Amino acid sequence: MVNLSPNHLRPITAKDLGAISVIEQEAYQYPWPLEVFQGCLRVGYCSWLLEQDARIDAYGILSVAVQEAHLLNLCVRREVQGNGLGARMLAHLLQVARSHDAEQMFLEVRRSNVRALKLYQASGFAQIGVRKAYYPAEEGREDAMVLRCSLLKQERWSYSPLNLDG
């Protein structure tokens, strides 16, 4: 497991977007275009990256409004996946959401992205719905699982575990 200190987390700047776009292109079959990242910075979304030795290894983008946060993108550089960087980035984004007084966080994730689903479940997310045909896929469209995490310490959810089998 890679061991990074918190000082390696910092806000994304416009100069980071080229490198982030490359990571996005390598990680996803249907990546965000550079213009989407530019728009996220322009409107002021909480955009963070995790770097080591001046190399970006993970990033995440979060919108926060009216006590709700929405995780828009979380990505780890392909060659360092499986080292806990996604969990570290997610934990940081959860803290960022709390610091903006968000009481809950939502996200959508592909039903087929079992690795991400396990990360989110381990971080306290529970499935609250499905968005049919939400994502583009090789053969048509793929459903998104809608997940929610309470950011209030006293709140406990009674949802059953995520169904990772489909």
Describe this structure in words.
With 166 residues, the chain is an alpha+beta fold. 27% of the residues lie in helices and 36% in strands. It has helices at residues 17-27, 34-43, 85-99, 114-122, and strands at residues 9-11, 46-52, 55-65, 68-76, 104-110, 126-137, 140-150. A 7-stranded mixed β-sheet has the order 1-2-3-4-5-7-6, with helices on both faces. Helix 3 (85-99) links the parallel strand 4 and strand 5.
Order of helices and strands: EHHEEEHEHEE
Alpha-carbon distance between the two ends = 29 Å
Q: Low-confidence runs (pLDDT<50, min 5 residues)?
A: 1-7
Q: Taking strands numbered 1, 2, ... along the chain, how are they ordered across the largest sheet?
A: 1-2-3-4-5-7-6
Helical percent range?
25-40%
Q: What proportion of the residues form beta strands (DSSP E)?
A: 35-45%
What class, by secondary structure content?
A: alpha+beta
* Shape annotation: globular
Biggest β-sheet strands, sense, barrel: 7 strands, mixed
Number of H- or I-type helical stretches: 4
Mean pLDDT: 90
